Amino acid sequence: MVSAKHVAIPAPIGHLEGLFEDGDDVAGAALVFCHPHPQYGGSMYDGVLDCAARALASRARACLRFNFRGVGASDGDWDGGSGEVDDVVAAAQFIVGMHPDAPLWIVGYSFGAAMAASAAQRLSPARLILIAPPAGRMQLPPITGDCDVIYGDRDAFIDPDMLREWAPTNLRLHGITGCDHFFAGRERELQATLQALP
Length: 198
Description:
CATH class: Alpha Beta
Number of domains: 1
């Protein structure tokens, strides 16, 4: 991927801090990456998001990571999840404005996966990739579009029964054996799983 540049993303609360990178495929998708919980240290520099961005670079025209409101240089304050969905929409609108002909993909990890799933109801992305969505810990909306879920079978933040109940027929589950919520020591497996997505 080409070196990243910082961008200011217009949002309802002012601006969100973003990190924009050109991908490797000029005909590829425009990807938005949503980071883990802001109140537990989550930011656009998260290692799992970095792994995901590298894994998907070959299929991307452009990648955008951003900080939710109140994180880093982003304006605003924590809003309990409601405003954070608006942040995902703002980030998606920003990258679509730059690449209107590219299909929109949204990738979320943990809390970011829950926000991505909620925002997808308003955005109808071409593809949704949810990494360790906190099924059983947070309310997750129904998924209607193309969606892949990647999770570890030792993830203490996911209720496996809730995950299976939530998964409709259009949602594909990809489990990684021996992996926790943070993919500690399993980054290669995560990267390989992402690269192998159809």
